[in-house]
Amino acid sequence: MRFLLHVLPCLALLLASAPTSARSGSAIFGTVIDVVTRKPIPDMVVTATSPSHPGEATVVTDLQGNFRIPNLEPGQYTLRFERLYYHLYARTDLQLQAGHSLRVRAEVVPDPNEPVMGCGP
């Protein structure tokens, strides 16, 4: 019992001093679709940047066009959506609140100037 009396305060202090970004429940998630076909776009690179936080967070959409960027600090964000054969698309002024998630639906436009690769005659 005495052991617990010494360990619990240390454990509480350790948890309280952990970086807030590791405990942040804030996230940005959503779906990316092709504006022409209305189908989800897999392998789209989604990058989140914030003027008040250094660096960037980058993820790639899954087969259903879904993405999730977890453990973000609260603040204003810009999302960039990039993929070969599509125009660059950006969403600006996204305000993320502490402990909340923000859902974003992005509709991107195919780039008609990109060559379409295919197989066959």
Which tags fit this structure?
121 residues; alpha+beta; three-stranded mixed sheet; disordered N terminus
Q: Topology, please?
A:
Elements: H1 2-16, H2 20-23, E1 27-34, E2 45-50, E3 53-60, E4 66-69, E5 75-82, E6 89-96, E7 101-108
Parallel strand pairs: 1-7
Antiparallel strand pairs: 1-4, 2-3, 2-5, 5-6
Descriptive notes:
The protein is α+β, with helices and mostly antiparallel strands and 121 residues long. Helices cover 16% and strands 41% of the residues. It is built from two helices and seven strands; from the N terminus they run H-H-E-E-E-E-E-E-E. Strand 2 and strand 3 form a beta hairpin. The radius of gyration is 20 Å and the shape is elongated. It starts with a helix and ends in a 13-residue tail after the last strand.
